[in-house]
Amino acid sequence: MPDVLRPLFDQVVIKELEPDRMRKSGLLVPQGTHDVPPNEGIVLAAGEGPPDLPDFKMPVRPGDHVVFPRSAGVWVEVEDERLLVCRVREILGVIESASGP
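The structure assignment produced for this chain is given below.
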């Protein structure tokens, strides 16, 4: 069974989205050590909220496509997968499709 990172309190676990490495010219830019950290990802899990605010409703849920500052949270590796763990307050917004509700 694979390991799962369950966030506590108001923490969120985000899977990074691979940056688009294909240029308009068709040139594929290889991944390097000086890459800028991603600032978009998919929420994998969200905590239940701060214990001192029982009526707090987490504004994101698993599957949400979110944007966050490059300096947000802490990057960890679980089973060779890079995951961002940050406070929900660090998330800048949720990207929603224009055809949504």
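Interim note for the steering committee: The CA atoms of residues 22 and 28 lie 5 Å apart. The beta strands are 11-16, 40-46, 65-67, 74-78, 81-87, 93-95.
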